[in-house]
Structures are given as C-alpha cells and as structure tokens.
Amino acid sequence: MSNHLKNEHSPYLQQHADNPVDWYPWGEEAFEKAQKEHKPIFLSIGYSSCHWCHVMEKESFQDAKTAEILNRHFVAVKVDREERPDIDKHFQEVYQLMNGRPGGWPASIFLTEELKPFYSATYIPPEPRYGMMSFPTLLEVIADKYKNEKGPLVEEAEKVLKHLNPDKDKIQATKLDNSIIGRYIEQAGQLFDRREGGFNKAPKFPQASTLDLLLDLHKLTGSKEALDMATFSLIAMAKGGLRDLVDGGFCRYATDDSWLVPHFEKMTYDNAHLSSVYLKAYHVTGDDFFKKVAFETLYFMLEKMREEHLFYSASDADTEGEEGKYFVYTYEKALKSFAKAGIPKKEHEALAKALHITPDGNFEGKNIVRVDSPESTEAIPYYDEAIAALKKRREEKRVYPFIDKKVITSWNAMMITALFRASRVDTKYLKPAKEALQRLLETMYPNSQLFHSTLVGKKPKIHAFLEDYAYLGEALIEAYESTLDETHLIVAQKLTNAAIEKFYQNGIWKFSRGEFETDAEIHDSSYPSSLATMVGLLHSISSLVDSVYKKFVFKSLEIHSYDVMRQPISTPKLSKMVIRYLLDDVIIKAKEEKLQPHIAELDTLPYPFSLLRTDTNDGFMICNTSACFGHEKDFTGVHEVLQKRQQK
Fold first, then answer.
1. DSSP β-ladder status, 41-46 and 75-80
2. pLDDT of 59-116, one tens digit each?
3. pTM metric for this prediction
4. How far apart are the first and last CA of the chain?
5. How many CA atoms lie within 13 A of 384 on its CB side?
6. Domains of the chain by residue range
7. How far apart are CA 635 and CA 588, in angstroms?
8. 179-318+404-583 — its CATH code?
C-alpha cells in the first residue's frame, strides 16, 4: 500500500513510496495534519544514492513496528535534498547549531507542529549502539516529552531559531592583495598528503576546485610546489577505487587515505569538475594521461548517465541491498573472466597482481581493481583485454546500480561546461555540448523562467536557486568561448541580471529566498560555492559585455575579504576570484573569422584568466576590463605578449 509519496516525481521519494511509514512530501497537507492532530513532525532528508539513507530505510522505515510508532505519534515528512537544497541547507544549519558539528545524510529532524526544530540527528540505529538509543526508543521518548513536557522543547526550538538568524554585526573587511597567492600555496602545502595525495585525512574528497587553483597558480607564478601537489593528487586519485577503472567515472569520496575504498555512488557534479581539472592538468603539463582520464570520464557520463541530451544526477553505491556489489570481484571470478577473454593462463597470476586482485581481497574479501602507476598501464601485458573482460562480466552477470534520473539545472550546466572545454581539445565533444545546452534551456528555462530540477519528459515545478543561475551562466560563457555565438552571451547576461535581482543585496548573496531564505556559502563543499561561481560569472560578463558588472564583483569580494584573505584554502573558488579580480582578465579581441581558428589555443595561453571576444578591429587587440595594452597582427604575437606579461 502506497503512502502520500506515490505521486511525487523525485526518484528518492519514490523509493520510499511503499514504506509502511505514512510519509508525506514537504507541504501544507502534512503541516495541517500536524496542527490538527497536535503531533510533532519527523523530517527525514536524504538522497537516492546515499548509502546510510538506504541503511536507515531498510532497518527502520521498512520495519512495521517502527513504522507503527512513527505513524501513531508523528507526522512523517520526506525530503529529497537534491530536489530541495534550500530545505536541506536550512536544516543542516539547524543541526550544526544544535550539535556543534556538521551534519550529513540522512538528516533526522524533529519539529513542533509549528515547524520549529527541537531535536536533530543523522543516521539513528534500530538498536542501541554508537552511544545512541535505538530509533524506536527515541521516538517513544520524544513522543512522551512532546505530549507531557512540550514547553521546554519549544524553548529549545526558539533558541535555535534565534541563533539561526542572529543580528548581523558590522562586516569585518580587509585589503584584497596578492599575498593571497603565497598564502594559498602555503596552506595547501600544510594540508597536503605527501604520501597519498589530496588534502587532509580520510574520508577524502577530490576537492577539484583546490586542484584547479593550484594549476592556475603554477601558470601565474611558476610554482613547482603548486604543480606537484596538483599532479601528484590527480595521479593518486586515478589509481583505482575512487576512479572506476572498469566503467570509467569517479565515485564521490574515499573512506581511506589511499583513495582505494570509496562510497561507490557516482555524482554528476564530481565527474563534471574532475574531467575539467584533468583537462586543465593536460594543458599545463602536456601529459596525455590527464587527457585520457578526462575523456574516459566524459565517455562514462555520455554513455551511462544521459537521456535526451540531459544528464541524470547520480548512480547508487548499493546493488541488491549490498554496497559495492556491482563494482568488486573475487579472485576466482576475475581469473575466470581473463580465461574467457582468451588471455593466456600463464599471464593470469601476474595480471591479477598488477590489478591488485588477490585471493584475500582488498575490500571485504573481494577486490577493487587498482594499479600502482595509472599513467603507464601500457606496461602491464594484456591490461586492456583484462579491463574489457571485467567490464563484460559486469554487463552480463550483474545488476547495474540504481540511477537517479532527476535532472538538476546546476549539475547539468557543470557537465556542459566540461564538454565545451573538452571540445577545445577534440571537436567531437562540441555536438553533445551544444545539444545538452539547447535541451537544458528548452526544459529548464521556459518563458525565461529558470527551474531547478525535473525528470526527463516532465514539466519542472521547483524554481531555481542561486547555484542554477550561476552554473548555467558559467556554461553559457564556456559555450561562447568555444563557438563565438553571441546568443550565448545574451542569455548569460539575462540570467546574471535576474540573479542580481532575486538573490543580491548590498554585496550579500542569498542561496534561496521564499519559504527558506538561506545565505550563499563562500566555502566549497561537495562542489564549488554558488556565490563564488556567481562572482566568476559577473567577472566574465564584466569583461565580455559591460564593465559596470565589476562593481558587483568587488562588493561581493569585499564583504568576505577577511575570511578569504585569512584562510584562502577553505574557499578555493572564491580565492581564485580574488586573484582574478586583482590581476584582471585578458580579453583578446578580433573579428570572428580571425578568432575561430584559435579557439583551441585558449586553454594553452600562458595567462589563466584569458577570454576571446569578437570585435571589428583589424588584427588582435589585447585588453583588460579597463583598457587595451597590445595589438598584434597574428595569434603568435598574442602568445608572446602574454608570456612577457607573465615574466614581469
């Protein structure tokens, strides 16, 4: 028997539609029921590829006895955090305030019937463990307190809400200057894992924006340390585990220091940003290995995660209720696959060893495929044949992980940005990039009204957040730089104006307005900050369309200057924007027919903040946002001018 989620579009909510818990979607029907029956609300926030969300569903939400307690004493509400990031962001802030540490998913929030939060947790076990009472016991305790001691709970909720929206102190600003460059490299070096690559200890996330800025700073300063930290990390992350050597694509994060054991979900945003940063490493180093990883990642996304030119949000970690089941191999089955592929038997043992496949396994008795030197797999005899054989076993014998087919504007825009960047290396990516951008605009920007998410073939209902405007605008800039089609600039400027109107006030950016008004974060989390991305879009529009937008860039940076200048490693994309603002863009202006043959050279220019702009002048004018400082007859001269500029 279905609950109240049966008509929801979200694949995550649909996963819970047949739970014995009488779930409601977020909305008035649930709130009115709570008020009418004087019941507290149990709010559960998660997403479809979240491993611990699945665990809690299996242990508690599918359990009839637990469901009976929930249904009797509470109104249960389910939220897909990817569909409603505004709700999630609000309650993650609530959790942080209540518990003094960051939250996560599933988020388990208890609210009064007036929607005031009084207790928060993440995963709650069905039996007492981890120093926690069991979920059924907790439900009984909270139900009793709500009935008999509601006053203190409401007082707690009032305190949380008061601290959630404190009176703003005077903004503490500091001077923006080039010292941020050395400070960023120094702080990155302090956190850098010199043994395994990446930053900090497990769980380890790819932190693509950190690596991206290090590559830019190498271009700007020649810093060998910045380059080494970036390339060492990118090679380490590509060994296998975090990167799926068999199907391609990257998992969300690693649970260990060596990038071997991931949570196996694959997110569109990770694969978009990582393919971009591997491409940048290719441009900086000239090493084809980085290009190979970028293209392999894009191939995975185009092959497995796309429908009607739009990209799905994520694929799951679990298959048939078991984490990683699709991805791992026993020693015996791996060797059997080698034999079926015609690989000589005498090669099997050495091949298995090279792929880290052993009888004991490297993950719960089974094996995650991995190599020691991913940049030189051609040195492993029969490597390609072995990978093809292991892929064939997956295709023929296994169930592919569940794919959340939700289409999210910002995440699709990230993929489109990566495809346009790839098209400047190989033109075969230009067609899918154009098709994806056109379809995204048709689907999510009808009648100049931007939306956040939908399913393929469905009309979107949820209005866009700051990240959607910022990332779509960024994709349109990349589309212009890759095609010189002026219509992309027109739409980008239109989106920028709408974002300023909706989310900006006196230097402060909101992530969302309306039901939940939340501030835009300056820190990069799962993916780069929407605020920083918006500032980047404003800077591009300032350089390419109208310099008046630069005042919004300065004001946005000034307000956050103290935090960014003091701890730039915590805000990589906004730190990049400070550096870009201080050094300014270089805009190369020429007639379209003059620029077209040199689009592919944009990423190899010695200055990282370079843009192309069609103009009517003869030759190539070299400008910044306030003046022009060079004029060259050919593009070779442009390279030489920028090279000399870098050496000053």
1. parallel
2. 999 999 999 999 999 999 999 999 999 999 999 999 999 999 999 999 999 999 999 9
3. 0.95
4. 72
5. 3
6. 11-164, 179-318+404-583, 327-398, 586-647
7. 9
8. 1.50.10.10
